[in-house]
Amino acid sequence: MPMRRMTRQRKAVLEVLQSTRSHPDAAWIYQEVKKKVPSISLGTVYRTLDALVKEGRVLALHTGGATRYDAFTDPHPHLFCTSCGAVVDLTLELPHLLEKAQAQNPGVEITGVRLTFEGLCPRCAAQSLAS
Ligand SMILES: [Zn+2]
Ligand SMILES: [Zn+2]
Predict the structure, then answer these.
(1) Is the pLDDT of residue 10 over 60?
(2) How many CA atoms lie within 13 A of 26 on its CB side?
(3) Which residues are in the CB-under-5-Å shell of ion ligand 1?
(4) How far is the centre of ligand 1, averaged over its atoms, from the C-alpha of 83 (Å)?
(5) DSSP 8-state class, residue 25
(6) In the CATH scheme, what is the code of domain 1-72?
(7) Ligand number with the minimum distance to the CA of 122
(8) How far away, in angstroms, is 14 Cα from ligand 2 center?
(9) Distance 122 CA to ligand 1 centre (A)
(10) Which CATH architecture has domain 74-131?
């Protein structure tokens, strides 16, 4: 039954994404999901990711290279590593940033905030200290 297979593929994609905080791209997700659902195609993985993003269950991060995906949708800023391309979650309180921006820009309707930092991930930072 196609419906049942859809559900299983969708569940597998979401589970793989929830198992990591490395913000993988679709190619990596495809490799991992294949271990659970060997018959899945890369196209199905892309379509499933698109649907999950539209439903707000997954965030798509546009890094300049391949789109990266994040199953943790609570607002949190990211650091894009300029050396290896890693995407790292940052801990940072963002008090009323959205409300402030809305108050100062009454002509637009602000629905969300995404904050991205650039720098070095822990691995690259350690390497640059060591050299
Ligand atoms: Zn790095
Ligand atoms: Zn994240």
Answers:
(1) yes
(2) 19
(3) 81, 83-84, 86, 121, 124
(4) 5
(5) B
(6) 1.10.10.10
(7) 1
(8) 15
(9) 7
(10) 2-Layer Sandwich (3.30)
By C-alpha distance, which of 69, 63, 59 is closest to 24?
A: 69
pTM equals: 0.82
Banded pLDDT at 120 (limits 50, 70, 90):
very high
Binning pLDDT at 50, 70 and 90, where does residue 1 land?
very low
- Locate CATH 1.10.10.10 in the chain: 1-72
The ranges of the chain annotated as CATH 3.30.1490.190 are 74-131
DSSP per-residue codes, 30-73: HHHHHHH-TT--HHHHHHHHHHHHHTTSSEEE--SSS-EEES--
Cα 88 to ligand 1 centroid, rounded to whole Å: 9
Mean pLDDT (whole number) for 10-21: 96
Predicted confidence (pLDDT) per residue in 66-116, tens digit: 999 999 988 888 999 999 999 999 988 776 788 889 999 999 999 888 888
pLDDT over 90 for what percent of the chain? 69
Cα 112 to ligand 1 centre (Å): 27
60 Cα to the center of ligand 2, angstroms: 10
Distance in Å, CA 120 to ligand 1 centroid: 5
